[in-house]
Design goal:
This is Uroporphyrinogen decarboxylase. One of its GO terms (biological process) is porphyrin-containing compound biosynthetic process. The protein is α/β, with parallel strands linked by helices. It folds into two domains: 2-226, TIM Barrel (Alpha-Beta Barrel); 252-328, no CATH class. The chain is 42% helix and 14% strand. The chain has a seven-stranded parallel beta sheet. The protein has a three-stranded antiparallel beta sheet with strand order 2-3-4. The longest helix has 26 residues, at 128-153. It is globular.
Length: 328
C-alpha cells in the first residue's frame, strides 16, 4: 500500500514538532511542551509521543455561537496541491495499491472534538437541536471535502480510508440506537458520495468493541473494516469471520495491546497463525497490527510478525488451528 494524504491548507501554518532534542521523559514530565491549534479550532498539546486535545472550540457554546463558528475550508487548494501528480505517478509506475487518506477524524469524532466529549453527550440527551446542527455542519464539510479530494485522485486509487471511532475496550462510545439515529445516516451520505466518484473500496476505521453495529456498517456499503482489536469485548475473530466474513473484508487483528509489546517472538508467531486461521479462509483478510505499532514494541516482534505473515499467509492456506475456547 501507498497512502495519498491531504496536505495542509494554505491558510494554516503546519505545526512543528517541538524540541527535536527533547527526550521521552521531558515530554512525559511536562518539561517540554508544544501546542498548536488546528483548522477546526481544537487546541492540542504534545505529551510524550502523541498530542492530546486540551481545548474544544465549541465547549460551552450556545446555538448562536455555533452559527458563528468558522468551519474549515473544504476547497482550500493547499489540501490537494500535488496529489494528482503523486497518485498518477504511483499508479502508472508501481504495483502498489493506492489508499486515499483524506481525513484524520470522522463525523462523530469531530463532534466530540469540537464540542467536547461531556458537552456533546449531554447534547444528545437534552439538547438534540445543537447536536443535530453540529452534526449536519460536519457532514456538509465532509461531503464537500471528499468531493474535492476524489475529483483530484479518485480515478487512481483502489481504497479510500475514512472512519469514526465508535468503540471503547468494553463497549461502544454511544448506544447502538443513538448511532443509528444520529451518525449512521450521515455516514451513509458520505459513503454514497464516495461511491459516486470512485470505484475504490471503502475502508472504515473504528477502534474498540463495535460488534453491535458491524451489520450497520455493512448495510451502508463499508467494504473493509479496520483495525479488528481482538482484546476488545466481543471482537472474537472466529465469530467475526463466521457471522460477517461473507460480507466484509477484515484489516488488522494482530494484537498490539498485549502480544506485540509484551510477548516473545514465538508468541507473535502464534498470534499471527491464530488470526490467519480465523480470518484468512476464503480470502477477505488483510493482515496487520490491530492499530498503529507503538513505540514499546520490540523490533524483533515486528520482524516476527512480518516473517510469520509471509510463511503462513500464502494461499492455499496450509495452516490448521483448532478453534480455541479462549480465542479472541
Amino acid at each position: 500500500f501507498r497512502h495519498i494524504q491531504a496536505g495542509p491548507p494554505d491558510n494554516y501554518e503546519e505545526p512543528s514538532f517541538g524540541d527535536p532534542h527533547a527526550s521521552y521523559e521531558d515530554y512525559a514530565s511536562g518539561a517540554t511542551q508544544h501546542a498548536f491549534v488546528d483548522e477546526w479550532g481544537i487546541k492540542w498539546r504534545r505529551a510524550a509521543y502523541y498530542y492530546d486535545m486540551v481545548e474544544h472550540p465549541l465547549a460551552g457554546a450556545s446555538l448562536e455561537d455555533l452559527k458563528a463558528y468558522r468551519w474549515p475550508d473544504p476547497h482550500d487548494p493547499g489540501k490537494t496541491r500535488g496529489l494528482r501528480e503523486k497518485a498518477r505517478d504511483l499508479y502508472l509506475n508501481t504495483d502498489y495499491a493506492l489508499v486515499a487518506d483524506p481525513a484524520s477524524g470522522g463525523i462523530l469524532e469531530m463532534a466530540l472534538w469540537t464540542r467536547g466529549f461531556e458537552d456533546f453527550y449531554i447534547d444528545l440527551g437534552t439538547h438534540s437541536k445543537f447536536a443535530t446542527i453540529l452534526l449536519d455542519g460536519i457532514t456538509e464539510y465532509f461531503l464537500a471535502w471528499f468531493g474535492e479530494y476524489l475529483d483530484t485522485v479518485g480515478d487512481y486509487i483502489q481504497i479510500i480510508a475514512q472512519g469514526d471511532d465508535l468503540g471503547m475496550q468494553d463497549r461502544m462510545l454511544l448506544p447502538p440506537n443513538l448511532y443509528r439515529k444520529y451518525i449512521k445516516p450521515r455516514h451513509q451520505k458520505v459513503i454514497e458520495l464516495i461511491k459516486s466518484k470512485t470505484r475504490a473500496k471503502v475502508f472504515h476505521h473504528s477502534c474498540g468493541a463495535i460488534v453491535p453495529v458491524i451489520g450497520d456498517l455493512i448495510e451502508i456499503s463499508v467494504d473493509i473494516l479496520n483495525p479488528i482489536q481482538p482484546r476488545a469485548e466481543g471482537m472474537n475473530t472466529w465469530e467475526l469471520k463466521r457471522v460477517y466474513g461473507h460480507s466484509i473484508t477484515f484489516h488488522g487483528g494482530v494484537d498490539v495491546q498485549t502480544v506485540l509489546p509484551r510477548g516473545t517472538a514465538d508468541d507473535v508467531v502464534e498470534e499471527v497463525k491464530e488470526r490467519i486461521a480465523s480470518l484468512g479462509p476464503g480470502g477477505g483478510y488483510i493482515l496487520a497490527a490491530s492499530h498503529n505499532i507503538q513505540a514499546d514494541v520490540p523490533p524483533e516482534n515486528i520482524v516476527a510478525m512480518f516473517e510469520a505473515a509471509h510463511e503462513y499467509g500464502q494461499y492455499p492456506l496450509q495452516i490448521e488451528l483448532s478453534r480455541r475456547s479462549d480465542a479472541s
